[in-house]
User: Fold this.
Amino acid sequence: MDKRTITALALMLVLYLVFDQFFWKPQRDRAAQAARQAQTESTVASPTPDTLADDASLAAPVVLDSLVSSSAEATEIVLENAKLRVGFSTLGGTISFIQLKEFTNTDTAPLNLLPAGASLTGTELYHPAGTTDLKAMIFEAKQEEGTNAVVFYLGDAAKPQISKRFELDDLYGIQMDVKVDNMAAVNGLMLDFSAGIADSEKNIRAKAQDYRLMLFADNSINKVTLGKLKKNPPQGSIGSFTWAAIQTKYFTIALREVEPPLTRNFSGMINPETGNPAFTLDSRQKDAKSTWQQSFTIYAGPSDAELLKGYGRQMERIAERGAGWLRWLARFFTWFLNWLHGYVRNYGVVIIIFALLLKIILHPLTHKSMDASLKMQKIQPQMQALQQKYKNDPKTLQIEMSKLYKEAGANPLSGCLPLLLQMPIFFSLYNVLRYSLDMRNAGFMLWLKDLSEPDPYLILPILMGVFMIVQSLMMQPKRGNIEEMDEKQRAAASSQKMMTWMMPIMMFFIFRSMPAGLVLYWTVFNIFSIIQQYILQKRHQNKE
Assistant:
């Protein structure tokens, strides 16, 4: 097997890895999700209101007039800390807006994670007689002294039938406690997060890929992109709920239930007005209780792994960092790029320095690979002579070729290793440069205003393709006389020529939709490789 065939196989492997990561893997995940959902629905049946109503041993709940109607007008209460400014409405005792103080929207206004006019944490009450919707009812409200908390309640202030308490922590957390008391029978609650999460970026062309719904239930984390959510939303009964999250490219709203978990049903969905992910969940159970209490922690902030880790239960997994076996590498790259950015304030320059440092680290390996490649070029005439001499004796040809490689110190496989080592780096950098909050609106120069987005004018992908062609031409062996080649050698030469031009074109179409920062890294790394190749070729020529 000659070097050209080995190189072609290596490039095919690269294409396979790229397509597996970005095209085939999502299809496998969708199939696995459908299988899990079918299994769950077949093994766990959700109790219905009719079943609950047929339980004669349960008395009908005592329902206050305020649970049925109210003529009062809704008012708004605002709580805030150093990170958040959160609005609460007495209509349903819900969250009406969540503003992040340290981040702005596309119009420089404080970023609001909720769609305009929408609300979260609306509640329905399940009981043997049916369902009571609390979202349209006006709650009484009182702020607790000495705490950053507000309590909404229905009924007597001393002994409310229903209360919803919200308290802000010092970061991006909102503690929510829902309690139902002084009722004859309660079968559970429904929490409404169907408003979803609002758009936070001007460019949402990749929304189907960047926006996600995540569910951690039954000791398994299920990640569903927006594209999958439209086709096959996850829903059904669950045995053990931990948390659910909806996220845009950079921000997250997550709901984690405080132990012990009582949630039994989950339904993912799309908000029809925004087209963004949303969900509802409920704790409806067959056996009614005289009191009911559930507690949750709401996280509303950036999808930052370190921040999320502080809220426990593997919530750091919400932050997009790629495949599990590569997350450690993505974390290291994030730390290192941020450290460099502390000294160099332009992220484009930081990426160029990173590419240079990586090239220096890999220099011994790539030097050895290029040296072996040049030796392979040097023995091309001998290889062609052997191929011509033993064209009808493949076994002898293989033996003689091995002898030739050994005498010349050449290795046809040596050119593949540096390329394969680049793949984990490439995939880790993809997630860091695309989803790291530090890259949000991080520009470089001229037309590159946001390195986390694709190049709007495709200049970088074109330059990358040009330099790939230059590098490929430099690594080609000197072409012999076509007339002296046999049919097999002519086919190999034709294949090499095709790969020289086709591979950069294919890579252009792959890279044109990738973050400009990633394309910048790949292009600069190739430029450094060309410089290294040129110096090494000159040294070999001088030795000769």
